[in-house]
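Letters spell out the chain; backbone shape is given numerically. Both lines appear below:
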Amino acid sequence: MKYCPNCGTQNQDDAVFCIKCGYKFPTDNWSQTQNTQASQASYQQTASSSLGLSDRETINTILLIAFIFSIIAIFVFLIETIGIAISIVSILADAAIYHVNVLPELIGSVFYIILFIVMFITSILVFFRTREIYGRAKAGDYATAYKLDSLVFGVIALILAGVITGILLIIANLMMEKIVNPQSKGFI
């Protein structure tokens, strides 16, 4: 397969013209090989920006999505906490009505409500921090956004405030590292 140097579209090796833009490929074998290698390199360079987004726009978009998912996480953990609280009330009511031992169920429910309260509070903190990071990045202050969005913060968000939010914050951190520390190779 060869790539068009004009538009980057993949074409058959024996194609004379590009199927997308109509570019006429050279006919001799040496120039065709050179053209294919050059067009593949050109296509790979432009593939990452084929959506027309710069690294900064991509980071801003990732942070906005993380911000939205942090809002969703708050509501999910709030609903779970309320559900478990209702479950605890139901267990206590059953104990009062039927005079049964509900200690094992009660201990399990109390454990879960404490867990979800911690996750709910963490989600609120992640929401405010993600909002601050997004605001700084949107304003172009990537150095401060990078400091706020540490890998440790991303991992805490990943574990306690939602997988999607945490992963997006980690990706944004790795991308911001390339902007803040241009000599750093980074992971992305």
Summary: Strands lie at 2-3, 10-11. The chain has six helices and two strands.
